[in-house]
Amino acid sequence: MAIEFTKYQGLGNDFILIDNRSSSEPAVTPAQAIQLCDRHFGIGADGVIFALPGEHGTDYTMRIFNSDGSEPEMCGNGIRCMAAFLAELEGDTSKSDKYRIHTLGGTITPQLMSDGQVKVDMGIPRLTADEIPTTLTVETEKVINQTLEVAGKSWDVTCVNMGNPHCITFVEDVAAIDLEKIGPQFEHHPVFPERINTEFIQVINSTYVKMRVWERGAGITLACGTGACASLVAGVLTGKCDRTATVELPGGPLLIEWSEIDQRIYMTGPAQKVFTGKF
Question: In the chain, how many domains are there?
């Protein structure tokens, strides 16, 4: 049976979107997702996203298989792409629409803006060691500027859970980081029992930072929405960033705000349709 899909990208973080509203189970298996994401023998993507029926009073459910077949709890760039995809499925991409989407990382609320951007209420960051999870410190403490030995070097790291786990470290020059070598060593470090996404951050000023990312299950990507959110939180916790800042990723910028009023994280960025097809 042929399955229709739409390819979307958010700052170069690209996804295969499948209309899965007629079933509560994903239309393809993790093994099939690996094949589809292959950039030489498949469609090519960082992950496959399924728009499923809503749960627990939400409008829709989002599930995603990474390019290695693993299933993350959430994906920030992916949920912006899913919001744009849902608006297309509903037949009206001109209105400012808001969706409540159930994910394994909690309920996320993206809203299509009139300028084509998507603003996402990413929820409240979780900060204690047991919430990350990590064994870097005792379960009830925040993980701020903890020392971690990776690749023969000591790194000061701050950890944040944005529905999925992140380890952030601040560096002098993000371009000098050998991501392909160091990224996997962070991801699979034994202090992270569920593996970890890792962000390397260069602070240009308190409202503008540069970021490179190694994503758990996807490797080097051009952008990571949850990672950008986690990085701003880490910047605030370490006194390096204001509560609103632009995070510049290889694929482009995201505007991130950690609200003092409700303590929630708001992410604003693009989601663009690339092409449609069948497989």
Answer: 2
Q: How many residues does the chain have?
A: 279
> Is 161 found in the same domain as 111?
no
Catalogue the active-site residues.
75, 224
Q: In the chain, which residues have pLDDT < 70?
A: 92-96
Q: What is the pLDDT of residue 164?
A: 96
Residues 172 and 153 in one domain: yes
Is residue 104 domain-shared with residue 30, that is, in the same domain?
A: yes
* Residue 97, pLDDT score: 80
CA distances 155 to 67, 131, 149, 168, Å, are 28, 21, 6, 10
Q: Is residue 39 one of the residues assigned to a domain?
A: yes
Q: Which domain holds residue 257?
A: 146-263
